[in-house]
From TrEMBL:
Belongs to the LysR transcriptional regulatory family. It comes from Thermobifida cellulosilytica TB100. One of its GO terms (molecular function) is DNA binding. CDD domains: PBP2_LTTR_like_6 (cd08423). This is LysR family transcriptional regulator. The lineage of its organism: Bacteria, Bacillati, Actinomycetota, Actinomycetes, Streptosporangiales.
Length: 314
């Protein structure tokens, strides 16, 4: 009989391309992964890994078995979720991925509620970019993820995931407080045609959205500085090195020298909570969904969306 841990090791190597990467994902040593593969080779009487330069590659037999392993492990996860739902106990450990401002603006409240209401459930938070988090949830590295996209730059949600629209988060324009437009009650994007911008790196979804949005208004983006963190962007804005788009979620107090002005029509991003389809009935997952929806209710000027878990499927 094929051992699940050994199949899991083979699947991780197939997914991540190396023994060391598989070991990191599985949380074990490279030696332990190699031992699992050696035992699996003895079980199957087949060679599964071959040397390729400094690394390894899967044999044809290994690729065939890895495909079966993916389906087997998915079925096991579904069975475990069904058993957990049958027991109805909110226990165990969940790993949740979240982008930075949601980690700051929503997760502390969610974690507090879970700790108060479900003392036997542990939630482990990891900050991840939305594009990275989605495949990691699909592979089972995380149980849930909070992700976002912008109108004009939608995320692609893989099959096998369910999503819940949590809220819409408005954004304003961060300007140096000495800027001529800093005192306005609202402004239009076209008034910023000649401005230099501080923005996210080119690999970030926010960068693609900003370029798309400005070009849709007939403006060619002039992004002169790049930073992942809004705090760094604001520090650059405060010193007069450009302007930036600033979402309200998780913002905190503005630093001296920065003014935030709303845009008309309103700019906003969309926040979603995602999980694997087979996890929809897990009491622990449902508990975190409820706690996160309650956390959304505590934030200020947002457009909240209240849906039942699983009501939106992709």
């Amino acid at each position: 009989m094929l051992d699940l841990d050994r199949l899991r090791a083979l699947h991780a190597i197939a997914e991540y391309g190396s023994v060391s990467a598989a070991a990191e994902v599985l949380g074990i040593t490279t030696s332990a992964v190699s031992q699992q593969i050696a035992k699996l080779e003895r079980e199957t009487s087949c060679r599964l890994l071959e040397r390729s330069g400094r690394g390894v590659r899967l044999t044809d037999v290994a690729l065939l078995l890895a495909g079966h392993a993916e389906r087997i492990l998915s079925l096991v996860a579904e069975a475990e979720a069904d058993l957990e739902a049958k027991r109805g106990s909110v226990v165990g450990k969940l790993k949740i991925a979240s982008f930075a401002t949601a980690s700051r603006g929503l997760m502390p409240q969610m974690l507090r509620r879970v700790a108060q209401e479900h003392s036997q459930l542990t939630v482990e938070l990891h900050e991840r970019d939305p594009k990275a988090a989605l495949p990691q949830v699909l592979r089972g590295e995380f149980d849930l993820a909070v992700v976002h996209d912008w109108r004009g730059s939608p995320l692609s949600f893989p099959a096998g995931l369910e999503k819940l629209h949590l809220m819409d988060d408005p954004a304003e324009i961060a300007l140096p407080s000495t800027h001529p437009l800093a005192g306005r009650e609202a402004l239009s994007l076209t008034e910023l045609a000649d401005e230099e911008w501080v923005g996210a790196p080119p690999t970030d979804i926010c960068h693609a959205w900003l370029c798309h949005t400005l070009r849709s208004h007939g403006m060619e983006p002039c992004i002169v500085h790049f930073s992942q963190e809004y705090s760094t962007q604001l520090a650059l804005v405060a010193e007069g090195h450009g302007i930036a788009v600033l979402p309200r979620l998780g913002r905190g107090p503005l630093p001296p020298g920065v003014a935030a002005v709303p845009v008309r029509p309103r700019l906003e991003r969309h926040l979603y909570l995602v999980w694997r389809c087979e996890s929809r009935h897990r009491p622990a997952v449902q508990a975190v969904v409820r706690a996160l929806q309650e956390a959304v209710d505590t934030v200020g000027d947002t457009r909240k969306v209240h849906l039942r878990p699983g009501s939106v499927t992709v």
